[in-house]
Specification:
Number of helices: 20
Shape: globular
Largest sheet: 6 strands, mixed
Radius of gyration: 27 Å
């Protein structure tokens, strides 16, 4: 007998399952009993019901839970394949052991890392989102994955959230419009997305032990729209539950979120997947909307079952309840129906493409998204782009210029074919014309390992902070240009899953270093690598600042391209940079990371002792808070400069009065008045001038990115209906557009409105 150690090898059984399917089909065809579920000429729902009728209760239950870290069983007897899932939203995660998080040791699972989702959202370009999803889906398909665990659409509530880099910013409209093409791009490959984390997982601290208190209006206006768009417009085939509690029920087994809203109100026909370890109660998991359970921390050995997976909440405990007559099978059949529906789109879809990995096309997509996502925050004196004729000696300073960023950060950590570092990209672009020299400047995180994936770097440096600073300053004094590359990194308590940042400022004494460099050389460009806003006490001293995010495999090339002017920056901030942490509404109103009296009492240490987090700020999140309360930000939502200039004409509307069933169209002319080709993002905000409830001073309701050559102009139109004017009336549980006067505000950031049009809703 041949024994295969499944802990040493993760053997994909798709080929065997396909063989079962072939044998079953051949046998039944010969005996004139071709099952409907194998007959591709029949409607899918009919085939699903036929397959369901042939399954035993044991087979049905077995489909509802994991069989390994990242897979769940099919039904081999009927030729129904197993499902294989994978992290993550920025690239396909390397293979791990069957039962463990340790690496499986494969040599063919290195991939292209794409820019983090903050960078994608910063492009404000829906076409880029489609390209991203399609390329990522091709790599997942090539790697034989059926469900991609992403994208993340949780709203940016605080700049301390360690996982903000995986999400798409603070605005529900921007996130909704950017997530839909991503989903469609991935799923065009026969790979399901799993939009996460549904819902209210807006911080990492206490994520397993928190109960979120939020009013329905805020829930529906701010935190639900991206998920609704994902399932009603993007048709995401799965959705992932969150860890936190809401209404004192955990989100992955939550009656209100999963049954009342997702499945009933929105009519969702797909699969609800638990986050890994998010389930903790069998009966709630049965009745409250969960379909597929992964990662539960259960010990099967103590229960006498053959492995831990049999002891999952939706495994033997569920089967025992059915056999004891304590629960029926109505919920079971609904869950399996959803899983079979997913199978016909993924594992049993014969028309899906083969995919490809690390192609030249994928590299180009990663580089282009990186270029478009980089945001030019400040460029006083036109320091950028670097004039190669004046730059004979360029100093590159900062640890982030040489630090690999694709390893670490949590479940989105990757094993890549390559990662072009900022220093390497700058040397490649400028090295032939200029002398590019490097100084460390500071020592931060010298590590580089996550779940056994190692960066291979040795960044140890025993010099003192004073020695490092002096070396950097001396190099800066001797150079024509200085490029400082700093910011955050993917280590714990920075941009990383599991914990939040401890402070809003830059770590590792970078503020002092930046100030010293500004004094040493006036031609200074600060490049910040982060997925979060950071404090900038030196902002008035520094002439030029680029926000570059985590840009994946092509990071160095994308950054160098923008520094050189080969790509004209066109990124816009997807969230507000407050001057100080207290300017953020969640921190101003005192409800982060939880209620202070409960924190003082030591609550939140385990799942039986949850801590309450109340969203006192309501709908006033991000720019909605800053603009309404007139709190000047460091950099506003939607802000981003260019190497050229744009001029907005006077906006017009096709009518000044609209009815409740009507639509109104706004038109504005945008002209490139500079000397370089470039792109501008035209942003439409709506203001309800007089409302019966507190409303933000403006809310984003439309945006378009336009590319213009010097002197070229174009007309941009926005069409809206009453949904753009509405707020959620919690008492009536419906969206309401109050009659009265409104304004359409058009500009290129939330605090840079160029033209207005007043109109009235009857």
């Amino acid at each position: 007998m041949l024994l295969i150690n499944k802990k040493a090898f993760m053997f994909k059984k798709t080929a065997i399952v396909s063989l079962f399917t072939f044998i079953a089909a051949s046998y039944m065809a010969q005996n004139h009993t071709q099952p409907v579920y194998l007959d591709e000429s029949k409607p899918v729902e009919q085939r699903i019901q036929d397959a369901l009728s042939r399954m035993t209760v044991e087979e049905k239950v077995s489909m509802l839970h994991a069989q390994s870290k990242f897979s769940s069983p099919g039904v081999p007897r009927l030729g129904i394949p197993e499902f294989w899932t994978t992290d993550g939203p920025h690239g396909v995660r390397p293979e791990v052991m069957w039962d463990e998080w340790d690496q499986a040791g494969w040599t063919n699972d290195s991939i292209i890392a794409y820019p983090a989702l903050t960078a994608l959202s910063a492009t404000w370009n829906k076409k880029m989102s489609w390209n991203y999803g399609k390329a990522l889906g091709e790599e997942a398909r090539y790697r034989k994955k059926d469900i991609l665990l992403g994208p993340g659409v949780n709203i940016y509530r605080t700049p301390l959230n360690g996982r903000n880099f995986e999400y798409m910013g603070e605005d529900p409209y921007l996130t909704s419009k950017m997530v839909v093409p991503y989903i469609k791009g991935v799923q065009s490959n026969g790979v399901a997305t799993s939009v996460k984390h549904f819902a209210l997982n807006n911080q990492e601290m206490f994520r397993h032990t928190s109960n979120v208190n939020i009013d329905d209006r805020t829930l529906y206006e701010i935190y639900l729209p991206p998920f609704k768009a994902a399932v009603t417009e993007g048709d995401s085939w799965t959705i992932m539950g969150a860890y936190d509690m809401y209404k004192n029920q955990y989100a992955s087994q939550n009656q209100y979120l999963l049954n009342d809203i997702l499945k009933k109100e929105w009519g969702y026909k797909g699969v609800v997947v638990s986050d890994w370890g998010a389930v903790n109660n069998t009966e709630q998991a049965i009745h409250n909307g969960l379909d597929l359970e992964f990662g539960s921390w259960t010990n099967g050995l103590s229960a006498g079952t053959k492995n831990a997976y049999d002891n999952y909440y939706l495994a033997k405990p569920y089967l025992d309840l059915i056999k004891a007559g304590k629960v029926g099978t109505q919920e079971l059949d609904d869950k399996v129906t959803r899983l079979l529906r997913l199978a016909y789109k993924t594992t049993m879809n014969r028309n899906k493409p083969f995919g490809n990995i690390a192609s030249e096309e994928h590299k180009a997509v990663a580089k282009e998204i990186g270029e478009e996502g980089i945001v030019l925050l400040k460029n006083q004196g036109d320091i950028l782009p670097i004039d190669i004729n004046k730059a004979k000696k360029i100093a590159v300073i900062g640890e982030n210029a040489i630090k690999i960023m694709t390893v670490g950060g949590g479940s989105s950590s990757l094993k890549v074919k390559y990662e072009t570092l900022p220093l390497d990209g700058i040397k490649t672009r400028f090295g032939k014309q200029a002398d590019v020299q490097y100084a460390r400047g500071y020592v931060g995180d010298i590590g580089g390992e996550y779940n056994g994936v190692k960066s291979g770097q040795n960044l140890k440096d025993d010099r003192s902070a004073a020695e490092l600073l002096n070396e950097a300053v001396e190099l800066a004094k001797k150079s024509d240009y200085v490029i400082f590359v700093g910011g955050l990194n993917k280590s714990d308590f920075q941009d990383s899953e599991g914990n939040d940042r401890k402070s809003y400022g830059l770590p590792y004494n970078q503020d002092n270093l930046i100030s010293a460099l500004a004094k040493a050389n006036k031609n200074l460009a600060v490049v910040l690598v982060s997925g979060n806003a950071v404090a900038m006490p030196w902002i008035k001293e520094v002439p030029s600042v680029l926000q570059s995010w985590y840009l994946g495999s092509e990071a160095g090339n994308s950054i160098a391209s923008v520094l050189a002017g080969d790509a004209n920056p066109s990124g816009k901030l997807p969230f507000t940079f407050p001057v100080k942490l207290e300017d953020n509404s969640a921190h101003r109103l005192g409800e982060y990371p939880g209620q202070k009296d409960e924190l003082a009492a030591g609550k939140g240490k385990d799942q039986k002792n949850p801590i309450n987090i109340t969203y006192n700020e309501g709908v006033f999140v991000g720019y909605r808070w800053h603009d309404t309360k007139k709190i000047k930000p460091l950099f506003s939502f939607g802000h981003g400069l260019s190497y050229t200039t744009f001029e907005f004409g006077k906006a017009s509307a096709d009518k000044t009065v609209m009815s409740q069933d009507d639509k109104i169209t706004f038109t504005v002319t945008v002209k490139n008045t500079g000397k370089k080709a470039g792109a501008e993002v035209v942003q439409l905000y709506i203001s309800d001038i007089k409302a019966s409830v507190p409303r933000p001073s403006k809310e984003l309701k439309g945006f378009e990115k336009v590319y213009l050559n010097p002197g070229e102009q174009t007309e941009v139109t926005f069409m809206i209906d009453k949904t753009a004017l509405s707020y959620f009336d919690a008492d009536k549980h419906e969206w309401t557009a109050e009659p009265g006067d409104f304004e359409a505000l058009i500009g290129n950031s939330s605090d840079a409105i160029k033209t207005k049009v007043k109109f009235t809703l009857k």
